[in-house]
Amino acid sequence: MIAWIVFAAVIFLVLLYRHPHFFQDVQHVRLKLDIKRRVAKYMQTNYSILDRFVDVVKLQPHKPFILFEGETFTYQDADELSNKAARVFLQTGLVKEGDTVALFLRNEPMFVWLWFGLMKIGCSAALLNYNIRSKSLLHCFNCSGAKTLVAAEELQDAVEEVLPSLLDQQVTVFTLADRCKTPDVESFKDKMSQASSAPLSKDLRSHLTLQSPAAYIYTSGTTGLPKAAVISHTKLWNISLVMTIAGMNSKDVLYISLPLYHTAAFLGLHAAVDKGITVALRSTFSVSQFWDDCRKYNVTVIQYIGETMRYLCNTPKKLNDRSHKVRLALGNGIRADVWRDFLSRFGNVQIREFYGATEGNFVLLNYIGKIGAIGRASFLLKRFYPYAVIKYDIDKGTPVRDSSGFCIEAAKGEPGLLVSEISMGAPFFGYVRDLQQTEKKRLHDVLKKGDLYFNTGDLLSIDEDNFFYFQDRVGDTFRWKGENVATNEVADVISLVDCIKEANVYGVKVPGQEGRAGMAAVTLSEGQRFDSAGVFKHVENSLPTYARPRFMRIQSSLDVTGTFKHMKVKLVEEGFNPNQITDPLYFLDERDKNYIPLTVDTFNSITSGKIKI
Question: Which residues does residue 298 pair with via DSSP β-bridges, in sequence order?
Answer without folding.
Answer: none
